[in-house]
């Protein structure tokens, strides 16, 4: 086919359909592009609304995380301080310092116990709201372990033989196991491993 023949077929087709068909074809094309733009605008609006909602949620999560982190760190600081007092009490009756002072660990334990209970009670209610279920269960186990250790410390006398220390050491071992698990769960909850890796 040559170009002249092709032009003739095109002109014949247009003239057969008429100018009206050409106008309708052009109008349909224009309406199609108009609808496509409106649909895109609607979709863009929906996406922008979702993005705003996600940004708001992210901002809220960031603020909550900061608040939760501070409360959990304050709580764990109190928890760990008492854990260390229990550890000293379980390991030795008397600690001798280089300056000549001696520390009776059992007496020190009972002196620090009331301070611990006041601090613990001041934050425990807040922390119970933000701890997830598995951490709350570990918190309850910790309370039981602290109570068991306290009972063993009350029964123990420093004049006891080494076998008399066994309940105290056993109570501390349980507390230590719970503490190690607790730390692992707190790290997972706060995602500290992920944050430190970056």
Notes on the structure:
87% of the residues lie in helices and 3% in strands. It has helices at 3-91, 105-130, 133-155, 162-190, 192-197, and strands spanning 94-96, 102-104. The chain has 198 residues and is mostly helical. The protein is built from five helices and two strands. The model has no long low-confidence stretch (mean pLDDT 81). It has a two-stranded antiparallel ribbon with strand order 1-2.
Which terms would index this structure?
198 residues; mainly alpha; 5 helices
Short summary:
This protein is mostly helical and 198 residues long. The protein contains five helices and two strands, in the order αββαααα.
For the largest beta-sheet, the strand count, sense and barrel status come to: 2 strands, antiparallel
Based on CA atoms alone, the radius of gyration comes out at 37 Å
Identify the strand order in the major beta sheet: 1-2
The total count of strands amounts to 2
Q: What proportion of the residues form beta strands (DSSP E)? A: under 5%
Determine the mean pLDDT. 81
Shape: rod-shaped
Q: Name the poorly predicted regions.
A: none
- Tell me the series of helices and strands, N- to C-terminal: HEEHHHH
């Amino acid at each position: 086919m040559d170009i002249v023949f092709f032009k003739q077929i095109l002109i014949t087709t247009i003239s057969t359909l008429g100018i009206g068909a050409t106008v309708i074809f052009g109008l349909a094309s224009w309406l199609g592009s108009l609808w496509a733009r409106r649909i895109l605008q609607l979709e863009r609006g929906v996406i922008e609304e979702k993005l705003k909602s996600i940004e708001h949620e992210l901002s809220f999560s960031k603020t909550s995380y900061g608040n939760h982190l501070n409360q959990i760190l304050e709580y764990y600081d109190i928890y760990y301080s008492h854990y260390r007092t229990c550890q000293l009490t379980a390991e030795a009756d008397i600690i001798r310092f280089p300056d000549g002072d001696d520390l009776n660990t059992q007496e020190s334990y009972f002196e620090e116990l009331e301070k611990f209970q006041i601090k613990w009670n001041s934050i425990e209610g807040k922390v119970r709201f933000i701890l997830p279920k598995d951490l709350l269960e570990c918190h309850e186990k910790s309370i039981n372990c602290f109570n068991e250790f306290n009972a063993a410390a009350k029964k123990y006398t420093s004049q006891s033989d080494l076998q008399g220390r066994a309940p105290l050491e056993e109570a501390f071992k349980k507390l230590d196991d719970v503490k190690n698990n607790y730390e692992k769960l707190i790290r997972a909850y706060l995602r500290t491993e992920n944050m430190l890796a970056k």
